[in-house]
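Support reply, case 0932

Customer input (verbatim):
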Amino acid sequence: MPLISIHEGEIKLDWRIDAPRARVWQCITDPDLLSQWLGVLVEGIIAPGSTFVVDHGDEYCCRSVVESYAEPNKLGFTWHFADEPPSRVGLGLEEAEGATELRLSHRALGDLAESYVDGWCTHLSYLEAAALGTPLPASMFWRLHGTIAQLRNR
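Our regenerated output:
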């Protein structure tokens, strides 16, 4: 069960994935696996100091620059959609009894912080499925997002 906190324009999510850390890292950084949980990598690579662009659907693209990269423990990058102010995402991975404890932080979101929680919970559900080798169909994304939003707002 994820733990969620929102404070001063930053969200933090703790998520447990019953897969080894190396597999979760692979899903986060491999272009083919990235498309199973975040979006299609349309430009660049995820590597130290690199720039990459992810299409989240319908050519709604996010441009990022990798700011920290410590395989298989930590990845940090900028996050910038054309219609939003730039922000920063950090992913930390720890091995725990054959599973992975993932900690996500998304900083500098300002008033957008609350609106990002349901999306990240949905993306992390897709990441978990990809890491377990049972990717979810892209067509289910918004349905799952809606369910998570309903559960959180009860």
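We compared this against your earlier run and they match. Two observations from our side: The mean pLDDT is 95. DSSP finds four helices and eight strands in the chain. Please reopen the case if you see a mismatch on your end.
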